[in-house]
Design goal:
The chain has helices spanning 8-20, 23-30, 34-48, 64-89, 107-121, 134-143, 204-216, 229-237, 250-253, 284-296; strands spanning 53-55, 60-62, 96-102, 125-131, 148-152, 160-175, 195-199, 219-226, 243-246, 259-263, 270-278, 303-304. By secondary structure, the protein is α/β, with parallel strands linked by helices.
């Protein structure tokens, strides 16, 4: 068979199979019967002259050729989707679907303030949100599953553009009665030998907190790691140590009488949040408009970069 006859449908079926590693679930995700999906995958293999999928009674695995094909299929489908969105949105800024990834230490605290204004300004926009860790969001951005990510800098991913949007300081969350509870501001050196509670590996906020540990002499809490900022706050309330919170998250997370919040003395440690997208994306103009809306409606505690 001629490889030139490969269809986008076959590529979508292959990607769905790679995501699920199960013919039945892949067929369900593509809204087709399992025999139909299986036949299309087999036809794709015949066109390419290579086995893409290792089939057994109990599992489905991609061959090395299959893994390469899936990566290329994701790129092709992403480009086709970019083309479709660019044509639909021509002349209508921020309209149609926009798939945005956010990290869990930012999205829940920023977006409730921004989304109502975004809907009012661009009523034809359909914003789809995905919350995940930075590396997984970058994987999806690279694969074309996302159009843009709101991530903490630095981002070292090649082939992307970045637009810094805002900075926010870190605050110290401590249990009531702690020796620093009445301090106007905390000097970094005052955290020396304190136990600093951190998020699990994979959270960029963990790495930023570890940088503060290195500068202040604080000790990372051995044996304790939170799955979320809310978990860390509960651990602080239980007297297990201190933690850091980004300024936008702090008011809602520490809104109880067991937790005290203290700012750092200047220059305070901060983080910078940026919008990140694939270089050459036709949604570049829309993403810059999105940045303008975010900046215009930043909650108290954040400072616009531009």
């Amino acid at each position: 068979m001629n490889p030139a006859n490969i269809t986008l449908r076959q590529l979508r079926y292959l990607v769905a199979l790679a995501d699920t590693l199960h013919f039945g679930r892949a067929a369900s995700a593509c809204h087709v019967s399992q025999p139909s999906l299986s036949a299309q995958i087999q036809q794709l293999e015949e066109m390419l002259g290579s086995t893409l999928v290792e089939r057994t009674k109990h599992r489905v695995l991609l061959t090395p050729a299959g893994e390469d094909a899936v990566e290329r299929a994701r790129a092709i489908l992403g480009q086709v989707d970019d083309l479709s969105q660019a044509v639909r949105a021509s002349g209508r800024p921020l309209s149609g679907a926009l798939r945005m990834g956010v990290i869990p230490t930012s999205g829940p605290y920023l977006l409730p303030r921004v989304l109502p204004a975004l809907r009012a300004a661009y009523p034809e926009l359909k914003l789809y949100l995905r919350e995940d860790l930075t590396e997984r969001l970058l994987d999806r951005l690279r694969a074309g599953d996302l159009d843009v990510g709101l991530l903490a800098l630095p981002v070292t991913e090649p082939g992307v553009e970045m637009l810094p949007v805002y900075t926010e300081p870190f605050l110290v969350a401590l249990p009531r009665g702690h020796r620093l509870d009445n301090a106007d501001a905390v000097e970094e050196g005052e955290l020396a030998d304190e136990k600093l509670l951190l998020l699990e590996d994979g959270h960029c906020f963990r790495d930023q907190a570890l940088d503060v540990c290195a500068l202040s002499g604080a000790q990372a809490g051995d044996g304790f790691a939170g799955t979320s900022l809310a978990t860390l706050v509960e651990m602080v309330a239980g007297g297990l140590g201190l933690t850091l919170l980004p300024a936008l998250a702090a008011p809602s997370l520490a809104a109880n009488d067991q937790i005290g919040l203290r700012r750092f003395a200047e220059p305070a440690p901060t983080r910078t949040m940026a919008l990140v997208w694939r270089r050459g994306s036709p949604r570049s103009g829309d993403i810059r408009r999105l940045a303008d809306v975010i900046i215009k409606h930043l909650p108290e505690g954040a400072q616009a970069v531009r």
